[in-house]
Amino acid sequence: MGKESVGISVSKKEDFSEWYTQVVLKAKLADYAPVKGLIVLRPDGYSIWESLKSTFDKKFSQNGIRNGFLPVLIPESLLGKEQKHFAGFNPEVFWVTHSGENEVGDRLALRPTSETLAYTLYSKWIKSWRDLPLKINFWNTALRAEIKATKPFLRTSEFLWQEGHTVHTTEEEAKEEVLKILEIYKNTVEEELAIPVITGKKSEKEKFVGAVYTTTMESIMPDGKALQMGTSHFLGQNFSKPFEVKFADKDNIEHFAWQTSWGVSWRLIGAMIMVHGDDQGLVLPPKVAPTQIVIVPIYNNDEDKKRILDKAGEIKQDLESKQIRIHIDDRKEMSPGFKFNDWEMKGVPLRIEIGPKDMDKQKILIAKRYNKEKTNLGFDEISKIEEILEEIQSKMLEKAREQARLNTVDITDYKEFKEKISIGGFFNAPWCGNQECEEKIKEETGADIRVIPFDKEDNTKNCIYCNEKSISIPIFARGY
RNA sequence: GGGAUCGUCGUCUAGCUUGGUAUGAUACUAGUCUGGGGGACUAGUGGUCGCAGGUUCAAAUCCUGCCGGUCCCA
Predict the structure, then answer these.
(1) Would you place residue A2 in the very low, low, confident or very high pLDDT band (cuts 50, 70, 90)?
(2) ipTM of the complex as predicted
(3) Is A200:A458 a contact under the CB 8 Å cutoff?
(4) Nucleotide nearest to A279 (CA to C1')
(5) What's the N-to-C CA distance of chain A in angstroms?
């Protein structure tokens, strides 16, 4: 036994979990850290994160949100200020109990999230309606000790994310902000990562601890499980009261402010791997691919080598001038076949091959990663490549949409629901709004309410569990 | 919380029953040939055998404790 295979050794279909881990490691996105539950990002993985970060930053900025920085340690006394919030996070908090040899008096939490810390500061900064709205985003990491099995990007004890915290004078304005952010999340994930999402509200049971309500975007993964891709919370005055985030309004009366918080994490990268990857490895959407095009030159004598590398260099320069990220793989020690497989495993969206035969015909061969299609392109048609990348991006989203559609079913019969749930998928099932039904369904099927889509308020149906009148048609699924 | 099982070059592993200089593959380095889908040959580098004790002339191997991983059950 024990021959280490170079490529992915299991199929996505047969052993999804093992497949996923192999792709992450072999595409060199991340590696395991020496501490259980923690991972290390390698340059290709971090580059994808940076790309998402820059897109979000642009959109946040257009929405009047600026970036700040918060420290990682939060005193227990602060974290415990909002009771429900604390109770929700407490089981998975890492605590710092010593500084050097000395025990610290008030234990320090490694932030599981920063609401309590941010709002302590906000209460100092906000005095008047003129100070509002206050909109700050923080790029950092959060730490939550994971007891269950961990998985790179999907469930780790420390994760990269952004957390935004805004403060408003009115309830309406805060609620609007919640939706604006959710829309930014949705269009970024769909346009950049080519993953379709469904937006809506979380049920009371599943909402963020401390929020009035939570809006969410959910996606369906190829194994039929749901993945929460990002959340945007309306906090109401639940935090502004204990933390005294108050302002004097135009009426000269002090009011508690209205707040929101929202975040997405590197889970998005995990989703991208799962949705687009195949048995050869990673498949990257062009927009976030660290390398969008790789040129593999093919030659067997010095004369060919020179003219081919010259041509490759020329193409590279041409495309680089259009901001395309392109790499020439001139490694001598590897055969072309090895390189093809290598770059496919790493998910590079487009490969260009140039060999002696192509030189003679004044053509190059291009191979698309996402559908393995190979075509020829004349030397005079290089400028088309820009469009080809755009086309790949939109086709990948289309393909993912189709996949999601196939995995979504309307269902009204509980018996049928129970049978089908093990196959996985999104189930549109009417619900009476009663938490007991929700809990029973979770208990009996393992599925919970992932999201109540915004357009699925519906009182014409009957609850799939208790048969009482429905209030909505949520999406039920088993989740990550 | 209960149970099972495993820790040996970067990685995967043989050796353990019956104690005696740690095996092979892969990866890595160098060279030659090769080159349109995971190439071939030759040579070389690399391991305090998870940690700490104990038994013994001698421990990867036997014993004890600890640490860590994985899986199953609650």
Answers:
(1) very low
(2) 0.83
(3) no
(4) B38
(5) 33
Both A81 and A113 in one domain: the answer is: yes
pLDDT digits (tens, 9 = 90+) for A138-161: 999 999 887 777 788 998 888 999
**Residue A67: its pLDDT value, please?**
98
Distance of C1' in B11 from CA in A1, Å: 13
Nucleotide nearest to A304 (CA to C1'): B35
Give me the CA A12–C1' B40 separation in Å, rounded.
33
Indicate if A76 and A214 belong to the same structural domain: yes
Query: What CA dihedral angle connects A305, A311, A313 and A318, to 10 degrees?
Result: -170
**A336 in a structural domain:** yes
Tell me which of A276, A306, A322 is where a domain ends.
Answer: A276
The sheet with strand A426-428 has its strands ordered as: A66-68, A134-143, A158-168, A258-265, A226-236, A213-220, A198-201, A448-453, A475-477, A426-428, A408-410
Cβ contacts, strand B, under 7 angstroms: A 1-4, 6-8, 36, 149, 280, 298-300, 332-338, 340-342, 344-345, 353-359, 365, 367, 372, 374
* From A104-108, A389-393, A430-434, the region with the lowest mean pLDDT: A104-108
pLDDT at A35 over 80: no
Give the pLDDT score at A3: 33
d(CA A127, CA A106) in angstroms, rounded, equals 29
Distance A270 CA to B59 C1' (A): 46
User: Nearest nucleotide to A360 by CA–C1' distance?
Assistant: B36
Name the more confident of A188 and A80. A188
Q: Which domain holds residue A195?
A: 16-276
* Predicted confidence (pLDDT) at residue A4 exceeds the cutoff of 80: no
Same domain, A313 and A422: no
Q: Does the structure show a pLDDT above 50 at A77?
A: yes
- Positions of strand B less than 7 angstroms from a protein CB: 10-14, 24-27, 29, 34-39, 68-71
* Tokens found for residue A290: 């660290």
Residue nearest to nucleotide B12 (CA to C1'): A2
Q: Residue A338: which nucleotide is closest by CA–C1'?
A: B38
